[in-house]
Design a protein that fits this description.
heterotrimer, A mainly alpha (292), B alpha/beta (419), C mainly alpha (384), A: 292 residues, mainly alpha, two-stranded antiparallel ribbon, C: two-stranded antiparallel sheet, 4 strands, globular
Chain lengths: 292, 419, 384
Amino acid sequence: MGTFVQLLVNGLGKGAVYALLALGFVIIFKATEVVNFAHGSLVLVGGYVVFALKDTLGWVPAALLGIIGAALVALLVERVFLANARRADPNSLALLTIGLDVIITEEIVRRVGAAIPFIGDPYDAQPLQVAGITIFRTQAIALVVGAVLITAFLLAFRYSSWGVAMRAQAENKEAAALMGIRSSRVTATAWLVAGALAGVAVLFMATQDFSGAGLGRGTHAIALIAFPAAILGGLDSTAGAVVGGIVVGLTEALSAQYISFEFSKSAVFLVMLLVLVIRPSGLFGTKELSRV
Amino acid sequence: MILRRSVLAGALASTLVLAACGSTADSGAGGGTGAGGVKTDKGVTDSTITLGVMGDTSGVFKNLGAAINAGNQLWADDVNAAGGICGRQLKLEIVDHGYKADTAKTLYPQLEPKILGIVQLLGSPVLAALKQNLIDDNVTAAPASWSSQILNNPNIMMIGTTYDLEQVNGLAYLQQQGLIKDGDTIGAIYIDGEYGGNGLRGVQYYATKHNLKVQEAKTTSTDNDLTNIVTGLKGAGVKAIALTTTPGQTASALAANKALGLNVPVIGNNPTFDPALLKSPAAASLDKLYVAASSPPFSSKTPKAAQLATEYKAKYAGSPLNAGVDVGYVEGLVWQSVLTKACDNKDLSRAGVQTALKSLTSVKTDGLVAELDYSSPGSPPTRGVYIAKVDPAAEGGLTEVAPLFTAPEVADYKAPFQT
Amino acid sequence: MSDTITEAPPSVPRPVAAPKKRNWIKIAATVLLVLFLVALPILTGSQVAYLKVAQYILIGTVGGIGLTLLVGQAGQLSLAHPFFLLVGAVSYAVLAGDPAESPGLVGLGFPPLLAVIGAVVICGLVGLAFAPVAGRLRGIYLGVASLSLVFLGLWLGQSLELFTGGTSSGRPPPTFELFGFAFSTTTPAPTIAGVPIQKQQRLWYLFLVFALGAYFLARGAINSRIGRSWRAVRDNEAAATAMGVNVARVKAGAFTISSAFAGLAGVMTALWLDLVKPDENEFTGNYSLTVAIAFLAIVIIGGLGSVPGAVVGAIVVYGLQQFFLLGANQFGWFADAQFGGLSAVILSAFVYGAAVVLVVLFEPGGAAAIGRRLTSRFTPRKER
C-alpha cells in the first residue's frame, strides 16, 4: 500500500510538469495549427539562461530571466521563421520546427558541454516525509506552480480579450480576421506564452528530483514524453493537456512498478495509441469533420 | 531531369576526387622484414610503431574518454622518452567516434591500414560492430569495456577484472563487512546491454552462492530517474542494491535511497561513479556507495597511480579528474609488455602480436591492476578488484577501503566463454 | 512534364514524372552516372572508408524513397521508419541465420536472397498490420502515433533476445550470398583495374542494385494508377472516395509499401554494420528517434514525394556527417572539437537542420523543385 501511494505521489508530481509542457504545445496549436517540434529546444534555452546567470545574479533573477529568455526565443522563432513562411501550410511549418529544433538543441548542448548542470537549487533534493510517504519538494512546488499557472491561463483564455481573440482564431481564421482580430498578434502572443511555460517547466525538469539529470539532451527528451500528453488529451484542448499530463505521469510510475521499468516508456505511448484508436482526436480534442 | 542527375553525379564526383587526392602513401604497407631483423606488416616502420585509439571525446562518455586518451598519451610519451620499443618510437592515431557504432564503422577502414593494433577501443556498441573487422584484419585491441561477454573474440586484450567479477567481489566485501547476510533480498539495477548484463551475471552468481533473493530492474542508459525503481525495491525490503549503471543513474538511485528513507548500502561497478556527481544535488546521498573497480581510484596511494595523478594534472590542467587516466596508462603498459615480447620474438606483425599476447602469463603493471594472465583466452586475465568508498574530501571523490581485494567466491566463477 | 491529374496544394510539390520524349543528352547523362557509380570502387581504391560512406548514403536513399512515397505521395506523416528498419534487419538475421553458428538464437537457415525477400515481405506485412491504426488518424496525430512504434521496437528488441540477440552483443547477420558467390572477403579476389573486389566493393554493388531497384520501382509506382490513387487520397479524401477510390485500402497499401522499403534499408544496415543489434536507448543507435528525424529530414530536403529528391536528401543527411568525420581525421578539420568546439557531428547537424528550415521557407519543393527549375532553364520546353 505504501508503495502504491508513493508511486501515485511520484506520478502526480511528474504529471504536473508534463501538463505545463503539453499546454505549450496546445496553445501554439490552437493559435496556428502548427505542432511545435521545437518545444524541447525552448526548454533548453530557458534552462541554459538560468545555468549561465545563476552564479552571478542569484537563482531568482536567473530563473526569471530564463523564463523571459525562453519566451523571447519562442517569439523570435515565430516572427523570423514562421511568420515569413506564408506559403507553407501548418504541416510544413511543423517540419520547419524540426529543423530549428535540431540546430538549437545541438548549440545549447554544445554550450553546456560536460557540465550537465542542475538548476533547481532552492528546492532540489530536499524531500519531505509525510506519514511515511516521501514528497519530493521539486514535484510539490511544480504541482502548485502548475496549478496556479494553468488556472490563470484557463481564466485568461476564457475572459481576456486575447483569450477571446485566440479562441475566435482557432474557430475560424477568416471570420476572426474579418471581425478585426489581428491574427499576427494572437499568434505571436501564443508563442510567447508557450515559450514562457517551457521556461517555467525547465526549472523543475533539470533537477535531481524530477529527471535525475541536469540540463542536457535528456531534458530535451522529456519534452518528447510530453508529446503523448498533448496528443492524448487532444491537441486543441487546454483541459486535455492537463489531463494528458497527469495520465502520462501516472502511467509511467505505475507501469514501472507493476509491469516493468523498461516497459514504462512504451506504456506511455501505447496508452496514447489506444486512446487515439478509440478517439482519433484525443480525449478532449475537437473531432475533425470532412466536408465535401 | 538531365541536370538533376548530372548535378548529383557532380556532387558525388567531387566527393571522390577529394577522396582520391587524399589517398596518401600509407596504402603500401606490405609485409617484410625491417630494422633489427624484425618481421613487420602493418603499422610498423623502421622508426615508428603506430597504434590506434578509438575513443569518445564528444559522446556520452566524453569525460571518462578524455582522461583515458590522456592516459594513453602519457604512456606513449613515457615510452618514447625512454627510447621507444624495439628501437622504434610510438605514435598514436587518435579518432573520436562519439560512442556511435555507425561512425566507428566508417572510421575504422580509414584507421586500420595505418596501425598495428588498438590501444584503446571504447564503447560496447562500437566493439560489437567492429568485432568481425578485428578478427578479419587480425587487429588486437584493448577494450575500454570490461565485459567478460566479449572474451569470445580472440583479438580482444582484456585489461583487468570484468564487470561480473567486480560485482562478485563487491557483494562479498559487503557481506564481510556485515552489511548483508545469507538469505537477504537485494536489488540489482542494470543497463540493458553488454555492460549491465555482465554485471548482473556476477550478482546472480553471488546470489546463488549465498541464497540471496535478487529484485532485478532493467533500464536503458537514458533513463536518469530511478525513483520509481527504488520505490519498488523499498517495497520489496531490499538490504542492499547492486548497480551496473551510468553515473547519472547512480546519483538518482542513491538520492532516492536516501529520500525514500531506504538507506541501504549500494555497490557499483567501476563506471557507476564519476567525481562530477559530488557537485550534483545528490552529493549528500552518495556516502552509501561502494565502488568495485579493476583499477585504483584517482586518489589511490599506489605509488604509480599517485605519480600519474600528478603528471595528469600538470599536463592536462582543467581536464576532468577521474580514474580514466589510470585506465589509459595501464592499457599502454600491457601493450608495452606485448610489444616487448613480440620484439624479442623478432615478429612485430599483427600475427606476432597475437602470439606474444597468448604467451604472457604474468604481466605486471606497477600495481595499477592485478597481475594479468593471458594464457587462457575466454577467462578474465585477473580476478581482483580495488574497493573504494565515496569520499568528498578525496581527490577524484573516492577513498580506497580495500586495495586488491579478491573474494574466495571468484575462484569458482566461470566466465561465459571460459573453457 | 507531369501526368498527375490532381492539383497539388502549394506546399506539396507535384511529383515528377519522366518526360515522355527521350533525348540524347538525358540518356548520355544517365549512362555517365551509372558508369560513375559502377566505377566507384575503383575510384576510391584503397580508401575503403569513402566507399563505406557511399554505401551508407544508399541505405539512406532506399529508406528515404520509402518514406517520401508515404509522406509525400500518400500524405501520411510517419516517424516509424526506424522500427521497420529494425524489423527488416532482425528478420533477415532470423531467416538466413544458421542455428549452428549462433547457438541459442532462432535461425531458419534460408538462402540469403530468400531471406532478403522474406524480410522485405515481413516488413510490408507489419506495416499492413499498423494500417488500421494509421487509417484512423491524420496528419500530426498519425506522426506521433507512429512514434510509439519506435518505442515498441526498443522494448521488443530488448525483450525478444531469441530473435534479436539482445542489446549486449546482438547477432551477426549471415553473409549475403548469391548462387554461391559470397559478399565477403576471399582469396584470391577478382580485381578490376588493379583494385581487388573484396567484401566492401561487393557490398557496394549489391547496395547499388538494391538502390536502383528501389528507385525504379518507386518511380514506376508513382507514374501508375497506384500513384494517382495515393495523390487523390492525399489531396482530398472525400473527393477520392467520390471518384471510387477505396481510401482505407489505398492508405494501407502506401503504409505497406513504404514499410517494405524501410525493411530493405534495414537489411542493408545489418550488412553494412556486420551486426544486428537492437539499440540500447531510444536516442542513439541505428533504429532510434534520431533516425526517425533524419529520415524525415531526407524527405523534406529532397522535396516531399520526389524520388530523385530522396537521393539528394540522403546525400545531405546520411553522407555529410560521415564525410566530415573522415575529413576531420584525414585533413585535421575541427581540431578544437573536444569540449565545446565545433565537431563534425555538430556541424553536420547544423547543416541538415538549416537545410530543412531553408527548404520550408524558400523552396517547399525541396531539392526536386530546384532541380526541376534548373532543368527547365537548360532544356527547350517541349510540353506545357
